[in-house]
Amino acid sequence: MGNKIPTFTEHQLDDYQDCTFFTRKEILRVHKRFRELRPDLVPRQMNEGQAANVKVPRECIEKLPELRENPFRTRICEAFSRDGQGNLSFEDFLDFLSVFSEQAPRDIKVFYAFKIYGMENSC
Asked: E-strand spans in 3-93?
């Protein structure tokens, strides 16, 4: 049905669907949004290595409408970034949006709330 180049393999989509609270269609929508942040940096078709290694700088993530006015935007980015600096790979970005989705269970939201507010080691 056309020359559409797949963004992810079926295996990748299965893996992302297993570890998030998103459907396949939502995962593709998240990728589109991630790519729109830095189309010069994020490839249209992501292989497994790129999904974990291509990172959008924190400054770009903080410009998202959902974060722009949030005084904790830097801490939110840092909490979800594997590098601890707030730079997000697609997988980090997917985790970030998944945790804040309506489908995410309360205990996961609470875990990240403590991480964002810097209180994960206070117990």
From this structure: 55-56, 88-89
Write the pLDDT tens digit of every residue in 67-120: 999 999 999 999 999 999 999 999 999 999 999 999 999 999 999 999 998 755
Retrieve residue 108's tokens: 């996961």
Query: Both tokens of residue 57?
Result: 């700088």
Give me 33's structure tokens. 């949004």
Is the residue at 101 inside a domain? yes
Question: Given the structure tokens 């991480």, which residue do they identify?
Answer: 115
Q: What is the rounded CA–CA span in Å between residue 55 and residue 41?
A: 8
pTM for this predicted structure: 0.87
Nearest to 72 by CA among 36, 96, 105, 41: 96
Query: What CATH number is attached to the domain comprising 73?
Result: 1.10.238.10
Enclosing domain of residue 58: 10-116
* Cα Rg, the chain, nearest whole Å: 15
Q: Residue 113, Cα to own-chain centre: how many angstroms? A: 16
